[in-house]
Design brief:
- By secondary structure, the chain is of the alpha+beta class.
- The protein contains 17 helices and eleven strands.
- It has a domain of 167 residues.
- The longest helix has 26 residues.
- Bound molecules: adenosine monophosphate and magnesium ion.
Length: 460
């Protein structure tokens, strides 16, 4: 295994060399062995003290140059010119079995020069939440950063109460964000902005290099990738929770699982984040927010587009078109149908789901023949049936197992108290989300009535 330093070499202005903090009593909690193997890392070695040191960033190969990355971002609409990795480190890039470059990155590895008032640390619960939710997303076929491992540090982290600390090792196509471009733009250094764009083209959207206007093509590629991503979130009922521009990738992968959750009862106004009081990042707002974030990317790229605002606006307009196409087609597929989408039939269904407070995920499995629909669909059903839905195809796109909020809470609470068994079982269920298995009934069931209004906290 060799660990590269391409980001640090090509974009030194955005990389601060830094070292992970030591952990007093490290203990490996979870490891994605199949991901490890993909990266050419031996899972058995990763379980040794040396391997755990590697996962903590404290025992790295000689050539590694870990860095904290600089980026900016709009947080809840307010621009912050210098955010950066306050508690994270890019260890470097690995080449996976498919020959692709993958970032290996830590979260919770100690304060960096970007930490401001933060302690640089992370708690076991939120890091395991990222682990389980990102595994579920990957198994659902939704582009996402991956979680390689979570290591408990043996250090106490102080939040509202004292909590056990942890470091997450995550893997991404890269950690370039909309906020990375905003940072480069805000420095006023156009050469840096151009090198960042060239780096992004080469790593994620190589076809743009051959286009007549490569930087406009890069923007279009990001618009397209994000339209695809957000349509997948919406179809799966996923609420990201903090869609700040620093939490939106250039690659089109989901990143930064904080107060994220899968929706239980269908309601566009669903918000899970305790800090999102205005509902800016509610389920139903996500496409609009993604478009808003992409407008910020366009602004950052303008100097590379010869300040051609018309071209930028026209390309941004593709987001809506692509998003609408993909979400309609995806919903039609969830209904087991092919051919022209009947928008009215879909809209009526969503209204019925909303009015009836119907569990979004369970509904589609029930519809294909596995149980109670949970509300009155008497007028709607015959019209749907008349279209000849393919129920076997439905079961290939509608998951039976998702990381339901009550199950995630139960598993994280147990893990925080030292019992990893519930988390392991949940991970097993969501790792094969479409395949119904005996004995896993409680993983398919909606939240109990008394679960109440669910809020996740910032994940810090
Ligand atoms: P997030 O909302 O997790 O994307 O984080 C937003 C910003 O806050 C990023 O710059 C993080 O690096 C920083 N941050 C979050 N939590 C901490 C922490 N405990 N210590 C230092 N920086 C943090
Ligand atoms: Mg973030």
């Amino acid at each position: 295994m060799t660990i590269g330093n391409r980001f640090a070499r090509e974009l030194p202005e955005m990389a601060v060399r830094w070292q992970a903090e030591d952990a007093p009593e490290p203990r490996l909690l979870v490891l994605d062995e199949s991901l490890a193997a993909d990266l050419g890392l031996d899972p058995a070695w990763l379980r040794t003290p040396e391997g755990v040191g590697f996962l903590l960033g404290t025992a790295l190969p000689e050539e590694a140059t870990p860095v904290a990355q600089a980026y900016a971002g709009h947080q809840f609409g307010h621009f912050v010119p210098r955010l950066g990795d306050g508690r994270a480190l890019l260890l470097g890039e690995l080449t996976d079995r498919g020959g692709r470059l993958r970032d290996l990155h830590l979260k919770g590895s100690g304060r960096t020069p970007f930490a401001r008032g933060g302690d640089g640390l992370a708690a076991v619960g939120p890091m395991l939440r990222e682990y389980v939710v990102s595994r579920a997303m990957h198994a659902l076929g939704i582009p996402t950063t991956r979680s390689l491992a979570v290591v408990a540090t043996g250090r106490t982290v102080y939040r509202e109460s004292p909590l056990p600390g942890a470091v997450l090792a995550r893997v991404a196509a890269s950690h370039l964000r909309v906020g990375s471009f905003q940072y480069a733009r805000a420095t006023g250094d156009h050469d840096l902005l151009r090198r960042l764009a060239d780096h992004a083209i080469s790593r994620h959207h190589p076809d743009a290099a051959g286009a007549e206007r490569p930087y406009l093509a890069l923007f279009e590629a990001v618009v397209t990738a994000q339209a695809a991503l957000v349509s997948r979130w919406m179809l799966a009922g996923f609420v990201h929770g903090v869609m700040n521009t620093d939490n939106m990738t250039i690659s089109g992968e989901t990143i930064d699982y904080g107060p994220c959750a899968f929706m239980d009862a269908f309601d566009p106004a669903t918000v899970y984040s305790s800090i999102d009081q205005g509902g800016r990042y509610a389920y139903g707002n996500q496409p609009l927010v993604a478009e808003w974030n992409l407008a910020r990317l366009a602004e950052a790229l303008l100097p590379l587009l010869d300040d051609d605002q018309d071209a930028a606006v026209a390309t941004l307009g593709l987001f809506r078109t692509r998003y609408n196409e993909l979400s309609s087609a995806g919903m039609w597929e969830k209904l087991g149908l092919s051919g022209d989408v009947d928008r009215a039939l879909v809209e009526e269904l969503l209204t019925l789901l909303h009015k009836g407070g119907v569990d979004y995920t369970s509904f589609f499995r029930a519809l294909s023949g596995h149980g109670e629909l949970g509300a009155d669909f008497d007028d709607w059903l015959p019209r749907w049936r008349a279209l000849g839905p393919d129920t076997a195809a439905m079961d290939r796109v509608n998951p039976v197992y998702i990381p339901r909020n009550h199950l995630v809470e139960e598993a994280l609470a147990a893990a925080t108290d030292g019992d990893l068994a519930p988390l392991d079982r949940l991970v097993q269920a969501v790792s094969a989300p479409f395949e119904e298995r005996p004995g896993l009934e409680r993983y398919a069931a909606p939240a109990p009535q008394d679960f109440g209004v669910y809020r996740t906290f910032c994940g810090t």
